[in-house]
Design a protein that fits this description.
Elements (H helix, E strand, L loop, with lengths): L1 H18 L5 H10 L5 H19 L3 E3 L2 E3 L18 H24 L6 H23 L5 H12 L2 H12 L6 H24 L12 H34 L1
Antiparallel strand pairs: 1-2
Helix pairs in contact: 3-4, 3-9, 4-5, 4-9, 5-6, 5-7, 7-8, 8-9
Length: 248
């Protein structure tokens, strides 16, 4: 009778142990299967940055709304200007591919953080997926499709402002992600400041995009947002790999 009671107690304590870090075989397999997906959040932003750096040097200019804009200047002109003219097929493909890779990475990141409940994991996934979704929209609708393109831009750059707060607070509850969660909370006001700076320097006219520094402030904003995605993707991959190694 004592033996039966002992086994019964072991089974009763299993859910509690799982909540404290001990996982079932099925749950243990999840980080191993999803950790590679997290690298999409690293590869996507790196690809996008290389695309606008290289194409910005190669672009002879472009035509927008029937007006020729040349030469192309990364200081005054938007990244989206590369989605017009001779560089258009490559830049628009980079927008879409970066968005898809990053979206895969976002799924991999949060599905690999097993300390989160299912609702928290999927909430974080949906919120952070707005940014790469905006990039896909911008790759489909070019600068000349101003309204949908602007909507995509806001998804890609402004949605992280509240998203970073939510994810930062949730990550702070997990010991191995607590430090990054704290930094991500600081990333929200930094992103907001860069969004405001961009719009202060942006002029929504053909003449306006040929002067000023809006191209530079937009690139600062893009690099900042993508840096957080790269850092989170790399951290999630590294932590999941460590967990797999310890179990092995």
């Amino acid at each position: 009778m004592n033996t039966i009671s002992h086994h019964s107690n072991d089974h009763a304590t299993t859910p509690a142990l799982s909540g404290e870090g001990f996982t079932t075989p099925a749950a243990q397999a999840a980080p191993s299967a999803t950790r590679w997906l997290a690298l999409g959040a690293v590869v996507g932003p790196v690809l996008f940055t290389l695309a606008w750096l290289i194409l910005g040097e190669l672009s002879p200019g472009y035509t927008a709304w029937g007006i020729r804009i040349a030469p192309y200047s990364p200081i005054s002109q938007p990244i989206s200007g590369l989605g017009l003219g001779p560089t258009a097929p490559f830049m628009n493909a980079a927008f879409v591919l970066t968005g898809l890779l990053t979206l895969v990475g976002v799924v991999g990141i949060f599905q690999g953080i097993r300390e989160m409940g299912a609702l928290a994991r999927w909430s974080c996934t949906v919120l952070l997926a707005l940014a790469p979704l905006g990039m896909v929209v911008d790759g489909i609708f070019t600068l000349e499709s101003f309204l949908p393109h602007t909507a995509g831009f806001l998804l890609a750059t402004a949605s992280p402002v509240p998203t970073f707060v939510v994810i930062g607070l949730l990550l702070r509850r997990i010991p191995r992600f607590r430090r990054f969660g704290t930094w991500l909370l600081l990333g929200s006001p930094l992103t907001l400041a860069l969004v405001v700076l961009y719009f202060l320097t942006f002029s929504p006219t053909v003449a306006g995009i040929q002067t000023g520094v809006a191209g530079l402030t937009e690139r600062l904003l893009a690099v900042e947002v993508h840096a957080w995605l790269v850092a989170l993707g790399a951290l999630a991959f590294r932590r999941a790999s460590r967990s797999v190694a310890l179990r092995g």
